[in-house]
Amino acid sequence: MAVTNITKPQPYSSRFRETLRQIRKNWSAYLFLMPGLIHFAIFTVFAVAFAFYISFHEWNIIRPEKPFVGLENYLRLFRDVRFHRSVINTFTFMIGVPLNLATGLAVALLLNTKVRGQALFRTLFYLPVVTPLVVSAIIWKWVYQGDYGLLNYYLLKFGIIQEKIFWLADPNLALPALILMGIWGGTGATMVIYLAGLQSIPEEMYDAAKVDGANSLQRLFYITIPLLRPTTFFLFITGIIGAFQIFTEVYIMTNGGPLNRTTTIGYYLYINAFRELDMGYATAMAFALFAMIFGFTLIQWKYTRGDVEY
């Protein structure tokens, strides 16, 4: 009868000594890693820990007294109507994420075919991605300008509207205007990632579908979209995270907007931190934002990963 040898787990002291032995053996590798580890420890680990500490204090930059207030800064979030408005605006801005995915996929499908000037079109669609966001925001602010903006000019010229529209000053139009700009700016990056996904799909699958009589729409819905699920999952999560962090467009184009209709969480955090100098409340808001992003990502991961093949 064969005897099976069962390896007993090493005690903690033995494993610790083995780890030290490996470190001494590969000391040069750890030496090269040390600058990055020190930078990470100081500017990430320590910074986050200190910010968490600040969130429990009434921390005004110009005041020497910084009293401990416990959970007051976090409880204040539930009573702050303007913060509630910023949360609603941020979630509304997320409408642009699926629209961005749809436009990016449509452009990728068009540019994945052999057309004349394919490289030029890809470059033109990707150009907004490499354009600094501040520059893009200034250009779009000029486009939306009510008196002499390009959008009003052409809408009036073609008779679509009868009078000027002040897009960024209208409480009902300011946020949709920002969403439209976000779609314009994000389509290029989405297109490139979808192009990579499309080119990884074996051509034989399309050939087999054609032999079976599948038309273009059937190939799209039964081959292309299902095989792009991992790509779509990645783009959706990163898009939601980016929507949670929107700041530059609001700061440059609307400055919070009429009736705070474009004040997002990121912009409201900036106001509390660098205008009102209330760092305690601002850091509490930052951790609340982190909790939202983490929770939203966790929910997406839980309910979507079963449909995604890796």
Structure write-up:
The chain has helices at 12-25, 27-54, 72-79, 81-93, 96-111, 118-130, 133-144, 150-157, 174-199, 203-211, 216-227, 229-244, 248-254, 265-275, 279-304. Helices cover 71% and strands 0% of the residues. It has two domains: 16-75, no CATH class; 81-307, MetI-like (MetI-like fold, Orthogonal Bundle), CATH 1.10.3720. Helix 5 packs across helix 9 and helix 5 (96-111) crosses helix 12. It has 310 residues and is an all-alpha fold. The longest helix has 28 residues, at 27-54. It has 15 helices and no strands. The mean pLDDT is 88.
**What is the third-level CATH name, the topology of the largest domain?**
MetI-like fold
State the fourth-level CATH superfamily of the largest domain.
MetI-like
User: How far from one another are the termini?
Assistant: 43 Å
Structural class: mainly alpha
Mean pLDDT: 88
Give the number of helices. Answer: 15
**Multimeric state:** single chain
Apparent shape: flat
Q: Which band does the percent of strand residues land in?
A: under 5%
CATH architecture annotation of the largest domain = Orthogonal Bundle
Radius of gyration using CA atoms only: 26 Å
Low-confidence stretches: none
Please give the structural blueprint.
Layout: H1 12-25, H2 27-54, H3 72-79, H4 81-93, H5 96-111, H6 118-130, H7 133-144, H8 150-157, H9 174-199, H10 203-211, H11 216-227, H12 229-244, H13 248-254, H14 265-275, H15 279-304
Helix pairs in contact: 3-15, 4-14, 5-9, 5-12, 6-9, 7-13, 12-15, 14-15
